[in-house]
Amino acid sequence: MSWAFLWSLPEDVILGINMEILDSLILGALQGVTEFLPISSSGHLVLGEHYLDLNVEMLKSFDVIVHIGTLLAILVYFWKDVWGMLCVIGRLFVGRLKMKDPYARLIFFIVIGTIPAVLLGLFAEDWIDASFRNVKSVGMWMMIVGVVFVFGEYAYRRWHKGFAERVDGAREYVQADYVSEEVRGMQWWKAIVIGLAQALALIPGVSRSGSTIVAGLFQGISRSAAARFSFLLGIPAMAGAGLLTALKIPESGGLIVDTWPLFVGFFTSFVFGLLSVAFLMRFLKRNSLIVFAIYLVAVGFSVFI
Questions:
Q1: Residue 223 · residue 286 · CB < 8 Å
Q2: Cα separation of 107 and 216, whole Å?
Q3: In whole angstroms, what is the distance from residue 176 CA to residue 188 CA?
Q4: 210 within a domain of the structure (yes/no)
């Protein structure tokens, strides 16, 4: 870190970027847990940086590092799916691709589901960041998302009950994994709807995993299957968001956080991210999003107290 650079900064900014190891440990763990649990990692980072009395705007480089940690966690946890998709891409280049390959269909759904977030990120990210990256906005959006979770669970149960009554064996059909013998229960327009929900997660306080999972519930997709697709869909989204933020780091003065806090943030976000996604995948097989809805409403409400 260039200490000469600090001499030219105002005192409040110097205090804002004086990140200690404990701060990076807390924020890295917070990012790792909240990136995959449907409770908004960006919103919790804003709140965490605020309550730790850190300068949010001067921590762009730290945010990039911890997002890379959680991206690595998702690649490790879903390594079989990632490898399967890489094999499909390899077969594409040698002319041996079969469109009925389940991983080929999965790539197709991920690509079209990523388009809305790409467009919104390119044309509205700066406006969103300027308008919604504050504590009050985060609290408001957390409460809104919590209420949407309740409606999503209600809609899913109504849809699932009616579908199971009409079609013999529908429960197994709806709850099948995306990549088994075929990609089940997914259509191109469903992928776009889930992609639109993912795009809304550019707003701090709106959970990316939560918004995409609940979008799947509204369409009758099971929680575990929706979560699986949500995390795989998040790979290009997290990579792209990290890249865009990294490109803006020079504008804010470069990497003005010490190396050790960056390393600790990366490592803790990776470890806690891995534990978080493993927990959620098991949790959603037998439980609903209601507990997360209650949490979001409570945290969002506490911001205004």
A1: no
A2: 17
A3: 18
A4: yes
* Cβ atoms of residues 236 and 65 within 8 Å: no
Residue 17 lies in a domain: yes
For the chain, the domain total comes to: 1
Q: Which tokens belong to 73?
A: 């966690």
For residue range 51-85, list pLDDT tens digits in order. 777 765 556 667 778 888 999 999 999 999 999 99
Per the listing, tokens 């959603």 go with 284
Ranking 115-119, 122-126, 203-207, 229-233 by mean pLDDT, the lowest is 122-126
Q: Does 33 map to a domain?
A: yes
Question: Which residue is listed with tokens 């792209």?
Answer: 240
CA–CA separation, 217 and 249 (whole Å): 37
* DSSP letter string, 266-284: HHHHHHHHHHHHHHHHHHT
Cβ(67)–Cβ(75) below 8 Å? no
* Domain ranges, residue 69: 11-303
- The answer as to whether 243 is a domain residue is yes
Closest to 116 in 3D by CA, of 280, 237, 228, 292: 237
Cα dist from 94 to 51, 81, 87, 109, 150, whole Å: 53, 20, 11, 22, 47
- What are the C-alpha distances in Å from 79 to residues 20, 143, 181, 220? 33, 34, 18, 27
Q: How far apart are CA 225 and CA 216, in angstroms?
A: 9
Q: What number of other Cβ atoms are within 10 A of residue 101's Cβ?
A: 19
Coil, strand or helix: which one is 40?
coil
CA 222 – CA 225 distance, rounded (Å): 5
Q: What CA–CA distances, in Å, run from 146 to 128, 225, 290?
A: 20, 20, 8
Distance between CA atoms of residues 191 and 124, nearest Å? 22
**SS3 for 290?**
helix
Six token digits for residue 157: 């149960």
Share of the chain above pLDDT 90, in %: 32
By C-alpha distance, which of 296, 126, 150 is closest to 202? 126
